[in-house]
Amino acid sequence: MFSISTRAPLSSIPTSDAVPTSYHRAADERKYQMDIDEEYGEGSSGELGAAGKNIVGPGESITSSKDYMRGHGTYVEDEQVVSSVAGTIERVNKLISVKPLKSRYTPEVGDLVIGRIVEVGSSRWKVDANARQDAVLMLSSVNLPGGVQRRKVEQDALKMREFLAEGDLLVAEVQAFFGDGAMSLHTRSLKYGKLRNGLLQPLPPHLIRRLKSHFHHLPPPCGPTGVDVILGLNGWVWVSAGTKAAVEGDGQGQGVGGGAEGDGFGAEGVYSNVNDEITPESRTAISTIASLIRLFAKYHIPLSDSLLLEGYQWISKRRGGAESTMISDEDGERLIGDVLGVDVSVDA
Amino acid sequence: MASSSRLEILNDGGLRHDARRPYELRSMSFHLSPHPTADGSATVTQGLTTVSVSVFGPREPRQRSSSSHDRAVIAVEVGVAPWAGTGAQRRARGDKRLAEVGASIRQTFEPVVMTHLYPRSELFINVQVVSADGGILPTAINATTLALVDAGIAMLDYISSVSIGLHLTQPLLDLSAPEEMDLPVLVVASLPNSGKITLAQMETRLHVDRFEEMLVLGVEACKVLKTEMEEYVKERTGKVVQRMSLAVEGAKGLQAGFIDGGR
Questions:
Q1: Which end of chain A is more exposed for a tag (fewer CB within 10 A), N or C?
Q2: What ipTM does this complex have?
Q3: Contact between A2 and B255 using a beta-carbon 8 Å cutoff
Q4: Residue B234 to residue A309, Cβ atoms within 8 A
């Protein structure tokens, strides 16, 4: 995906070659090794914050454990705080931790996640949310058809598979944690619930930042009804056909269920398994957005809705009509260059 | 392929059949994250041997029975591509030799990966041998180290591995397939910072007087390998960190421009 060619002057020649040239050291590159060492500093121990980048790898000692406390991503050996992952050093007063470049999603209460039902149990669902352990969705933490105030009865526990069956996707919020570290989810809001009318695009979780809103509506030039994007903090992104509710709410994150019209709940649409009619133009827009998301992920660029819009405008200008929803490597490089002003032609 | 009995291990000039000196390693190349959906992945090429490793997890164990309440369990699966050129016969997935390679990799990493940080979960390591020319196990171990680093999984240290052969009294480093067939082979995996050994494996007999020399040489070679891996990992990490921060600044500017232009 992302590989590093040499640091030699050669690297300024753009390689439009689709085959990534991986790092391969020849004898004459020895002389460039020197400045690498200076830049990332073997001697970052002791002098924290001084070395420009503060990048360490596993097994590298950072500082003395007498003066500092060890945080995540470190361990103590021979009175030294030693890194256990490759990443950047982060220091809060006397606490040293190392944040790995990428890692599995670590949930926090209030996070918005997208998950997939893997098991239906006794008054609970097991949900795969791309975390270390499966999440739990209790029957008591969902809204059932009939309104928020509706009481759950024994019959509901028997009909659980009618609401959410194995393989169904849903958007939910992290409610709490169990003693063993597994997370408990809830969908007690109109924003949350079963997902349909779209496609799932998994990404490395570190590319999704915590934002004010994780529901985005890309307005109509992007497909006839626009495209809705839900950025799950666990790295899963849901791209779906824009809904009326979302248009009216101006992307304030209304009505994921798609059936949320007027009265909001009541409709059986919330747990429906049937997609709405999606026009070919809408489908094209959805998969183009998904291609864009993959493109940004390929170059380690954190996602945002404005980035997607800008990218979509670029790509539709370039194409004129709708042909393919795939983005070629050259187009991708140019798009990133034009939209973000970052030259990526050197790294692939 | 030349019949193994006719292969000259060291010629009069003291060079091996591929013109390497006895202590010379084959050329290496690393590639991090070739697999977009795995949690971490790496491809390592040493000479004509290429191994690709993908790490999935820590994740919910696929079989409930294999989970442990206080640590992560490591599962390794090894596959060989049909075109890899291991020999005439095709290896099925359940092959005994491959299972053994998998077990060696698991045993190598179990004491070094900090599994207690990931209780009730599973680390699944998939090893694919893309092309084989000797030293499958050491290359796979090196690739697994890089894949675990890529996945952000906590480890005590890098693990690097190398094979050492013995020709008469001369130890040879990093054997290719023809050499591997003719010589006794020792595979060493070690933690380069401390010099600790996590794997020393031998399938043939060897004079005990030579063993220590080979082991010491192997640990030394592991340090060299680690330097290479570390340099690559750091350079890449630095670039990605830079890219992520650059992109954030870019997006901020963009957002401002978008709002000004749009409204």
A1: N
A2: 0.84
A3: no
A4: no
